[in-house]
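Case study.
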Amino acid sequence: MIPIPLLLALLLAFGIDAPAGPPRDATGALAWIAAAMGGVAASAFALGLWTAWKVRRKGFATSRTRRAFGIGSRLIALATLVAFGWIVHGSGWPAIVLDAWGWRGSILVDDALMLAPFLAMQLLAWWGLFYGERAVMGLPASHAGRRVARHLYLKERQSIALVLPVVLIFVVRNDVIDRLWPAWRYHPWAEPLELAALGSLVLAVSPLFIRLAWPTRSLADGPLRHRLEAIAGRSGFRCSDIRVWDTDHMMVNACVTGVLPRFRYVLLSDALIDGMTPSEIAAVFGHEIGHVAHRHLPYFLFFLMGVMMLVTAASDAFVGLEDWVAGLTTVDPTSPAALRDAAEGLALVAAIGVLFWTVFGALSRRFERQADVYGCKAVSCGSPDCPPHFDYEGAAGDEPRRPIAAVCPVGVRIFADALAAVARLNGIPADARSWRHGSIASRIKFLADLAESPAREPAFQRQVRRFRLGLAAGMVAALGLAGAASWIGAMG
Ligand SMILES: [Zn+2]
Ligand SMILES: [Zn+2]
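After joint prediction, the assembly is written out as follows.
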């Protein structure tokens, strides 16, 4: 749900100070930027068309083709970020936009232009990969989802809903506050306070943007809705609506948005509702409720803001270190400055990348498992001698109000089937590794073990809780250290 590449791009563009010097040869720099963007686009088209060709030749998508396509798509996402990092920090793009083209101090235009190469590369990459996606999903020729323009339009519309609140944050932060309260920028508390206030704001209002920008409709009143509402009632889960998300059947997906119940929606994609049984849909719905019940969204926000503040603190520490080194040595510190800036920038980007891959990945996979367990409980009967299993929500008449409590073997089976169906319908091999979710096969294996010995669950929950607390403590300690370092730097 969280658009990681976009967040990283925003961090690259606005979170890390770009070197100020304009490029000596602006035309040459623009040519190199175009070449980098062209390279990303060309590899996306090559991968997409190659995958489509393979599928057409075989008549179906082999698991090797699917895996190659999955890995290739991720590499292209990574290449987009690397290219954008170079455009912002290596090519002199910011100086061209702000100084050569004279957009410095404008509202929104400067920020939009800064981000434009990333958005253009992402759009081109989606376009190229679309041919492969379509082939891997095996859509019939008459299908609406086969048309490129409509696919890009839907995808762009979806990502814009996620971009808009974030862009709003940057506008408010960079342009409006600077204009109205110029002194505020230099206040030591400015950065963390702004990030905290604006981050919470975005988390609160982003569901409204999604509601406006994504094509959705309310789930019709009927047995499925009653079933889902019964589960929500049992979980004490409140939301503003359960909505069907129209993707032209290109996506089997579900998500929950928003931290406040008033602005919270559960979205179930059209293909998910058509391709799965009611109890499987209920299991997926339970998984989404699990994210809310365990407060995963606010924790992610805390984590992301901590990383941003660490980056800010780290760049401050770099400045302090430089001054200190400059005071010690007699060597002219200005001459290798460009090289040093570039190396520092690269080191910082690499450090953020590693932090994301390891810590964020590990956290995200644990949260997914926790949500999986919750999804199992949502469709479990709670009877200690199941099977026979009883489907309370499917039964007519009054359903006993029982809380979400324990997993039962059949409930786990239903949830595992739902996971397998999601993989199958999306054309993903079950053993494909996913950095954020873990592979479907490993998730199913974990649940099967749990069904065998449900007594293991409390130990698992404790383990996740400990990881969460440990990470928070580590983050606070690192921020404290960074604060102390910059304070010492300021004293020296
Ligand atoms: Zn999830
Ligand atoms: Zn049962």
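Observations recorded in class. Strands lie at 216-218, 241-245, 254-257, 265-269. The chain has a mean pLDDT of 78. We will return to this complex in the next lecture.
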